[in-house]
Amino acid sequence: MEILTAWLQGLPGFGGMSDQGLFITGAALMATLMFTVMALCAIVFTWMERKVAGFIQSRYGPMRTGRWHGWAQAVADMLKILGKEDIIPAEADKGLFVFAPLLVLLGSLLAWAAVPWAPGFSAANLDLGLFYIFAASSMVVMGILMAGWASNNKWALYGAARGAAQMVSYEIPLALATIPVIMHVGSLNTQDIVVAQQGGILNWFVLRDPFLFIAFWMYFIASIAETNRGPFDMPETESELVAGYHTEYTGMRFAFFFLAEYANLFLVSVIAVMVFLGGWWSPIPGLDFAPALTFVIKGVLMVFLNMWVRWTLPRVRVDQLMYLCWKVMIPVTLLCIVGSGVLMITSGALG
Amino acid sequence: MEQKAIYELLAAKLGEGALAWHEDEVEPWAEIAPAAIADACAFLREDRNTDFNQLMCLSGIDWDGYDEAGKGKSVAILGYDELGKPEVSERIADGDLGVAYHLYSHAQRHKFTLRVRVPRAVAEVPSVAHVWPTAAWHEREAWDLVGIRFTGHPDLRRMLLDEAWEGHPLRKDYMMPAKWAGVPMDGRPYADNPFPTPEPPAGGDQPGATGPAEA
Amino acid sequence: MATGDKNLTGWADQDHVPGIKSELLELNMGPQHPATHGVLRLLLKTDGEIVYQVTPVIGYLHRCAEKIAEGVNYKQWVVYTDRFDYLAPVCCNHAYVTAVEKLLKPEVPERAEHLRIVTAELSRIASHLIALATFGLDMGAWTPLLYCFREREEILNLLERIAGGRMLYNYFVPGGVRYDVPDEQWIKDVLSFITMLETKKIKDYNDLLSYNKIFIERTADVGVIDAETAKAYACTGPVLRGSGVKFDCRRDDPYSVYHKFDFEIPVGMGEMGTVGDCWDRYMVRVREIEQSCRIIRQALDTLPEGPYQAIPLNKMVKVPAGAAYSRTESAKGEIGHYIISDGGQIAFRNKVRSPSFCNLQVVEKVGVGQMVSDLVALVGSLDIVLGEIDR
């Protein structure tokens, strides 16, 4: 943000602008940028998801649209979905029905603000960055619950109830898994967390100590659940709940859910990169060029891992999902916090 | 166990209820009085020697017009006239209705066939759904398609057809309704069709048009 | 977990929270629902995720094929049997011609019997592959679906070469089969296909799905049908064998020339949970694929030379008067045909006892007390096909 305002100040015509005006212009630019990134995520990742699924299932995936490996398929799909009729069920709660997808989208969009793309470059360099990200992304739950309730459809209601239970539960291990890292860094600022991992792959938090390694995988599992993707896609579960909370949504509104899903997917992936996988630092010390690109590539690799899991494993049942969360993951992450803390004390890291 | 022996066991138990044993058939079968069929089945199921724990099949049959010489002519629709009205043969159906039970024992590895016949006017047979749970659906199907009412059945609704359907299709005198729920059933074009077939565009010889081109 | 001990009667009348009237939720699963494998409709009464009552509603695909049978002659009706179990149509053909031949008593040539068994077993494998695929899909595993369909495609190609059709074959006629083996290459291709299936592909499915921890969690101890229930509801085929009952028409009530071949009858052993759970039924199918491969290999190795039809194709069949019930083992279970002939060219009555019809009924009993997700697993593991249920 500071970089952006500084850059804006240098532009002809912006020099005489007040600080407030510069801030507002910068914020508007940044929001546009974030939204573009999000929309791009959705487009790129739908295509990628199809190709990955095709690769895993020994088929091609899209091959025609746009000649080269169907690269334009996602764009075409997006255009198609925007051109579809917008249907609101007659018995639906119209206000909530319309508002729900916006809330879901808003939740994931807000969280993007604190993501550190490069040294000093994040939309909002907040001192409580990580906390803010988790807080903002919790809003998605309300959107899903709202969508399911407003649809006036039993399947959607089931999906929403499952989704709410699942996402509220999995936020706990998701956040707990990052606490050992916060203890190491001593800050919630996202920039600080990445800076603390400078100096090659061995300095990344995932390899700092065994508890952090476990915490990383706990985070990864929780993040799959948090994004409602297989094997934890309880709110959707095509084979049980038809399409879960977005059964009744069409066209643009459905696209919002879709957008939010992929934006969330990328978000949790980049948080994993930021917290555990060294952010913008390259694995070999001293080879750090194009930090933003490194960051995005790592994020995409995490997304690939997520897709790999989705297309390989069957789905768990809803009670097993809850069991996993409350009786396995939360105790393990708590153990990680304690263990990591003990290691820090014994190794004298606390001075 | 020999089938004949099973029948003798059954006849001793039922007395009057066991009507006849038909030995010289492709598949020997026992004729049972309708009133005794539930007892017969319960006995065959419970008795240690017979132990028929599986009802393989329960078939409802309309015996109207059955003639072993191959001259059987059922009362049925002969065809449709130009107005779509069915042409029906003159004879009034009067044949019996029947039910056939095919039993199998997993333990004894033997099979047995029972049949009952009831007059068309009565069309009631005691249910055996309490003997084998699987009979419940078979009986519902027989009620649905052949129109045999099974007394004592826990839930005798139509199985395959709609509850509002009239008649029982597998009866030999069944007539397909000309229309059901507003839809014609004889395969003719639908006069009240809300989506009429669009007129073919003028000048059929356009690129992309299908069908034979006018000379 | 399953809570079958909850008392349903009077549940709705109780006030579980003081002052708030609660009742069971009625849920319409189908006829358009991804997990009902066709146009099956399950009327559920649920309390949250727990199902209290299941009422299957069927008939959406009803064509009254038995009435059609009273209007077409014996040979013409073979095509309608294709439409029953459209995933294993050759098995349905087999069931029907076996019934007709029981009355007709033609001298079916050995070669025809061998060809029948080879094609029926291929069809059985194709059907079981779909059963595995769709069951996996019900459990949320997408990838095995594509793998199984890839192998099924091979079977369809093989059957297309011998029977001319890909989906509906109309391959059997009373007294033989319609076509002979196209060429020697066909036999070689079948053998190489089943070798590939036995050595590689089944291992793939097992690695990917059968022994997957999540899959086992989802299917073991779920939808348990005990042996007594299975027999009482006249369940047959993999459903009965999954409950641990070693019964297979092909061996215990032999028809055709199955008695000549050596094969095992896989049964559910409760390896992952209770005998008769969904995993057992699933695994029985996987193991039956292996056994079918064995049968095909033996049948092809001993394929005799000679004619393949006892009755010329263009000759009408007149079946002697009488009634006969015959049963054969199809992919889904036991298909029974009760044919009553009055001596003419057309059957007087032809009752079809379809395995899925009887197997589905058990849902009414076993589905109660399960979770909605488990009900999906149960219905998937029964491997029903609606063409056969509704006829």
Measured between the Cα atoms of the first and last residue of chain C, the distance is: 35 Å
**SS summary, helix count of chain C:** 15
Total separate domains of chain C: 1
Instruction: Please indicate the count of domains of chain A.
Output: 2
Low-confidence stretches of chain A: none
Task: Provide the succession of SSEs of chain A.
Answer: HHHHHHHHHHHHH
Sheet/helix structural class of chain A: mainly alpha
Descriptive account of the structure:
Chain A is mainly α and 351 residues long. Chain A folds into two domains: 1-75; 84-346, no CATH class. Chain A has 13 helices and no strands. Chain A has helices at residues 2-10, 19-56, 73-82, 94-111, 129-137, 139-150, 154-185, 190-195, 210-226, 238-241, 251-275, 291-312, 318-346. Chain A starts with a helix and ends in a 5-residue tail after the last helix. With 215 residues, chain B is an alpha+beta fold. Helices cover 15% and strands 24% of the residues of chain B. Chain B has helices at residues 3-14, 37-46, 135-145; strands at residues 18-22, 29-32, 54-62, 77-80, 86-88, 97-104, 111-118, 124-126, 149-151, 179-180, 183-184. In chain B, the strands form four sheets. In chain B, strands 1-2-7-6-3 form a five-stranded mixed sheet. A two-stranded antiparallel sheet of chain B has the order 4-5. The longest helix of chain B is centred in the N-terminal third of the chain and has 12 residues, at 3-14. Chain B is elongated, with a radius of gyration of 24 Å. Chain B starts with a helix and ends in a 31-residue tail after the last strand. Residues 206-215 of chain B have low confidence and may be disordered. Chain C is α+β, with helices and mostly antiparallel strands. In chain C, the strands form three sheets. In chain C, strands 1-2-3 form a three-stranded antiparallel sheet. In chain C, a hairpin with a 4-residue loop joins β6 (322-329) and β7. Chains in contact: A-C, B-C. The B-C interface holds B 25-27, 29, 53-57, 59-62, 66-72, 74, 76, 100, 102, 106, 109, 113, 132-134, 136-138, 141, 145, 158-162, 169-170, 174 and C 58-59, 62, 64, 66-67, 70, 102-103, 231-234, 245, 247, 252, 318, 321-325, 327, 334, 336, 338, 340, 342-344, 348-349, 351, 353, 357-358, 361, 365, 390-391.
